[in-house]
Design goal:
2 domains, 33% helix, globular, Purple Acid Phosphatase, chain A, domain 2, 10 strands, binds manganese (II) ion
């Protein structure tokens, strides 16, 4: 048994890991896979926000595209928003019959600039198109084309909102921001369950959860002082006694590591709730 296997501490090699909010921190993500000794016998579940904000969205998208069968990727709000930006470009091309060449990086740039121009002309907020400049960077630095963007948007549309598994009789749900069973439980604050899955903040602990369950989410970095989840950049754990529900927020703000002390990438092994950090 080599050192790595010893550190993993499991008997049969079947471990379930959850990671969240990588936000383009591709280098740290690879270091994490190495640290946990991730192998074909294990399962990795991503809780969303693989891209945007950070430096390496392109590398993350390529990784997602070719990820092994034992990886399950739930969507985050940043994936959903990215796909909606691609939809806008695609729709403009169709509706205006621009007939852009989907294999051309140059034509993708022209289409992108046209969307930007229309937003400006119509006085629409930047919030609704490429807020973090992710597509701009993919086009200018990585030379991607419309085929690439549409293929990634399609991948995102196939990502589920949550992933369910059972670990030691406890049903575990991996979701980006929060999980609730019924819309009635959250309806005064959110218009749909999907909005809750993607955007819940502290409501995920107050309104959501699952009886005799475990929720593993991200979305709100644990580095923000005065926030409910603040935990100096460590994983936040909350136990709802009434529901017998364990809640984890594992977004430790990796992408903010240069600006915030304590910010890091976290990963949890569900079988023994062991936390790993990079
Ligand atoms: Mn998020």
């Amino acid at each position: 048994m080599n050192k790595k296997n010893k550190e993993r501490g499991d008997i049969n090699g079947l471990s379930t890991y959850v990671i969240s909010d990588i936000h383009g921190c591709y280098k740290e993500f690879l270091l994490m896979l190495d640290k946990i000794g991730f192998s074909a016998a294990d399962t990795l579940i991503g809780a969303g926000d693989y891209i945007e904000r950070g430096l390496n969205s392109y590398e993350m998208l390529k990784w997602i595209e070719h990820c092994p069968d034992n990886v399950w990727l739930v969507r985050g709000n940043h994936e959903e928003e990215f796909a909606s930006y691609v939809d806008l470009m695609f729709q403009l091309d169709r509706e205006e019959e621009l007939n852009s060449d989907f294999n051309s990086n140059q034509e993708a740039i022209v289409l992108y600039e046209t969307v930007k121009y229309l937003f400006k002309k119509k006085g629409l907020s930047d919030l609704y198109f490429d807020l973090y400049g992710t597509i701009h960077k993919l086009l200018s630095d990585s030379g991607v084309n419309l085929n690439d963007l549409c293929r990634w948007a399609e991948l995102i549309r196939k990502m589920p909102y949550f992933y369910k598994t059972v670990i030691k009789d406890r049903s575990c749900i991996v979701v980006h921001a929060g999980y609730a069973e019924k819309l009635e439980d959250i309806s005064f604050a959110f218009s749909s369950l999907e909005q809750f899955y993607l955007y819940a903040r502290k409501e995920s602990c107050q309104l959501g959860g699952k009886t005799h369950g475990m929720i593993i989410a991200g979305h709100t970095p644990t580095i923000i002082k005065d926030e409910f989840f603040y935990n100096k950049g460590d994983v936040f754990r909350y136990y709802d006694k009434e529901k017998d529900c364990v809640f984890y927020n594992i977004d430790c703000g990796s992408v903010f590591r240069d600006k915030t002390t304590g910010a890091k990438l976290a990963c949890i092994r569900l079988e023994d709730e062991k936390i790993f950090y990079i």
